[in-house]
Design goal:
The structure holds two protein chains of two kinds. By secondary structure, chain A is α/β, with parallel strands linked by helices. In chain A, 32% of the residues lie in helices and 26% in strands. Chain B is an alpha/beta fold. Chain B contains eleven helices and 18 strands. The model of chain B is unreliable at 373-386 (pLDDT under 50).
Chain lengths: 414, 386
């Protein structure tokens, strides 16, 4: 086990983490930047250049393909990578470990050929050939457009974009975009680039059809149902903050986000949070929050407070996103009794419907007890049944037992 | 609202549900009160190892009967209970521990329980993953592991099928002939059984119960890695000693192929906070690696902590509580509540109904600590090991 020490540990090398790291490094503060992706830049934004520019900095220790698996002692994180385990002690910690896609069960969603929206993008980036393939992208939120664009760029034929929110709701969101000119420009560009792609509102996937593999998708648009043949279906219902580490550290969360004050301090001393963790709001909000946290951490309180004023604008954007793309009730009612909800443990909707709480479901159906540790099904059950899934047990990610065991030289064997 | 019943059992853990079933089978009108998830307290926290322990003659009698009652009913358990007769393999790491294995073997044989002493060579044939250098072992073939919350649910459903009622609510205090619930309701019952594990002290603060924290780790699925419940013979020292903190090697192959790794004991002065104590967890894992080096590279998916309701002499409190007419206790099982659920239920229901019990009830008398003249049974076993 390697023993590492740093002044500032940053978990997540996306826009928030990189923005904070840049400020701290410029100030001369040693930074350890940890990310479970193979390169810095984030999963959605993929701002590789920003990370690459920083990579050689003498005060930066960049740990990519590395996961934080536990917080075994105050000011200490347990890390794991393919090279082994390390223990990192820090003075300050910035959590900027982002969000994941919300996946919700519907009949057929476990068929090969059905993926998350971000999931299909990632598959394409890692070499999946979609040239000439018919793709349907469905779910909710602006990220569907980005997915459509990257699929189109990879040569796929995006035959349908389906947004569950109503036309009225999406229009209201679009009309408000002038508050955030950058977002408006982005939206207009996306709209231009996707002008050949049919974009239907008030439309959701009822079922994925096929025997061994996806063959067609049944969509519901208002009162009518249509079936479209396709090769890939990518469905994502927006993003959910990755709260497990924040909770393991004892940071307070509220309504599914980490609670922070105006300068990004969490409820735990010396622990800060920025980016999607504090509310889904995209790259601009994340970068701004990363800068606020960075300024505070280097002791520039006044500058941090001054910058924090600009945060309100992005909080309004986050609120608008949440409001206008909120899920319609039908989305929580798609699963039938035999629809799998927990993929790890093969638990179906019918069994879960008999339970009264997340804990009861865990104990009596094994839902959430598999290697994904309830990341997918826990969030799904929250939407489906309204169950609060507050606690998660260590480790934050599945980890090798010898990582959890810590330093063998200090552990006693009697 | 007032409800009347003959027996009110507080707590739908595995002991309370087994008792409900036993009393209902004898024709009593039983109500079982539970505020949380069925089998969600101590029942869900442990390993589900059905094992006879001989820390004292009374412990031996109750746990052996418990293991045998489960064996008889195993065929009726639902698949979800994951009952699996994998046997217990006690590991001896020295000649002294091998002597202890031989002593245990004689005891089992005396009671007609089949077991097999293993030489080192035979031990490695049974479990090739064990670290080299062990002296041998003792295999108790008929012992089993199971998933306690599902077994608990099954017992409850059996009790309900015979007329028992499940009532949702949290007991706030015991009153004359009844229980007051947090929501203000009062339940009247001729007899009340407190079977609420560690929470029993919220109703009866004078009970000699102390939460004894334990921690477990479960891995991803590695079917066939090990075949028996593996326990070091030193486990008995850990389980029966009164040290503030101890760890012992105890690994179980679950029906799912997962490995469940224990065990640790510590008296919790921090109440029932179930955070992981990392230094102790790490000590426990180091102990596990000492016996099973191959564990190091396996993936852990979850750790958790729970609390055993411990009494000063390691024996449960089963019987009428002096000074509280009509109040009975079925708690304080420490780590043996799952093993002894059926035998504890049988013993207590015999006492409640007025039938002669098949096990001597005196060592379990809840009032044994308050009577200064009653000597507390010393443990022969830890002496043999130290």
């Amino acid at each position: 086990m390697r023993e590492l020490a740093t002044e500032l540990a940053i978990v997540g090398a996306g826009p928030a983490g990189l923005a904070a790291a840049e400020i701290a490094l410029r100030h001369g503060m040693p930074v350890c930047l940890i990310d479970d992706n193979p390169a810095p830049g984030g999963q959605i934004w993929r701002g590789g250049q920003a990370g690459a520019a920083m990579a050689g900095h003498p005060k930066l220790r960049l740990l990519t393909a590395t996961r934080v698996v536990a917080a075994p002692a105050p000011n200490c994180l347990l890390l794991e990578s393919a090279d082994g385990a390390s223990q990192l002690s820090y003075h300050r910690l910035l959590l900027a470990n982002g969000a994941r896609e919300r996946l919700l069960p519907f009949p057929g969603w476990t068929l090969p050929g059905v993926t998350g929206a971000g999931g299909l993008q990632a598959l394409v980036k890692s070499g999946l050939d979609v040239r000439g393939k018919k793709v349907i992208i469905a779910g909710s939120g602006p990220l569907l457009l980005a997915t459509a664009l990257s699929l189109k760029a990879a040569g796929a034929q995006v035959i349908q974009l389906a947004e569950q929110a109503s036309l009225a709701s999406v229009s209201r969101f679009a009309l408000h975009l002038w508050h955030w000119p950058g977002k408006l420009t982005q939206a207009l560009m996306l709209g231009w680039q996707l002008q050949q792609v049919p974009y239907a509102m008030n439309t959701h996937v009822r079922a994925a059809l096929g025997n061994d593999r996806l063959q067609a998708v049944r969509l519901r648009r208002g009162d009518e149902e249509i079936e479209l043949a396709c090769d890939w279906l990518a469905v994502g219902y927006g993003l959910l903050p990755n709260l497990e580490l924040a909770r393991a550290l004892g940071c307070k969360t509220h309504h599914g986000v980490v609670e922070v004050d105006h300068v990004m301090r969490t409820s735990r001393r010396d622990v800060f949070a920025a980016g999607e963790l504090t509310g889904i709001g995209g790259v601009d909000k994340a970068q701004l929050e990363g800068r606020i946290a960075g300024l505070l951490i280097i002791g520039e309180y006044d500058r941090a407070v001054a910058l924090a004023k600009r945060r309100r604008r992005w909080l309004r954007f986050a609120a608008a996103l949440e409001q206008h793309f909120s899920l319609q009730p039908a989305i929580a009612q798609l699963a039938s009794a035999d629809t799998v909800v927990c993929r790890c443990e093969d638990v179906r909707f019918g069994r879960l419907a008999k339970c009264g709480s997340w804990r009861e479901a865990k104990l009596h159906t094994r839902c959430g007890m598999g290697p994904c540790q309830g990341r997918l099904c826990g969030a799904a059950c929250e939407t489906l049944f309204g169950w609060q899934n507050a606690g998660s047990r260590p480790p934050v990610f599945p980890a090798r037992l010898d990582t959890l065991a810590g330093n063998p030289s200090t552990a006693e064997v009697t | 609202m007032n409800r009347h019943c003959e027996v009110l059992i507080i707590g739908a853990g595995i002991v309370g549900c087994a008792l409900a079933e036993s009393l209902a089978r004898n024709g009593l009108a039983v109500t079982i009160l539970e505020a949380g998830v069925i089998g969600g307290g101590c029942t869900a926290a442990g390993m589900g190892h059905l094992v006879a322990l001989d820390g004292s003659p009374a412990e031996w009698a109750l746990s052996l009967a418990g293991v045998q009652r489960w064996q008889v009913r195993a065929h009726a358990l639902p698949a979800a209970a994951e009952y699996r007769e994998c046997g217990t393999l006690w590991l001896a790491s020295s000649a002294a521990e091998m002597n202890e294995a031989e002593r245990k073997a004689a005891l089992y044989t005396n009671y007609g329980v089949s077991c097999q002493l293993l030489t080192a060579e035979a031990l490695y044939q049974h479990e090739p993953e064990l670290a080299p250098g062990l002296a041998g072992g003792l295999l108790v073939q008929d012992e089993a592991v199971m998933y306690p919350p599902a077994a608990c649910q099954w017992l409850l459903e059996r009790a309900q099928a015979m007329g028992a009622q499940l009532l949702r609510g949290r007991a706030q205090r015991l009153e004359q002939d009844g229980v007051r619930l947090e929501d203000g309701r009062c339940l009247r019952a001729r007899q009340i059984v407190v079977a609420a594990g560690n929470q029993s002290r919220q109703l009866l603060p004078e009970l000699p119960l102390q939460p004894r924290k334990g921690q477990l780790v479960i891995t991803e699925r590695y079917p066939g890695k090990i075949h028996h419940q593996l326990v070091e013979l030193g486990y008995l020292q850990s389980a029966h000693g009164n040290a503030g903190e101890s760890v012992a090697f105890n690994v179980q192959p679950r029906a799912t192929g997962q490995l469940l790794i224990g065990s640790s004991r510590q008296f919790a002065d921090t109440g029932l906070a179930d955070e992981i104590d990392w230094p102790l967890l790490q000590k426990m894992l180091a102990r596990a690696f000492h016996y099973l080096p191959g564990l190091r590279s396996l993936q852990a998916i979850r750790t958790w902590a729970g609390f055993r309701p411990a009494t000063p002499d390691k024996l449960p409190l089963l019987g009428p509580l002096a000074g509280h007419p009509g109040v009975w206790l079925a708690t304080g099982h420490e780590g043996l509540g799952v093993t002894t659920a059926l035998s504890s239920a049988e013993l207590l229901s015999s006492l409640m109904i007025g039938l002669p019990p098949s096990i001597d009830p005196r060592p379990f008398d809840p009032n044994r600590f308050s009577n200064a003249n009653t000597p507390i049974c010393p443990h022969a076993l830890e002496d043999a090991l130290t």
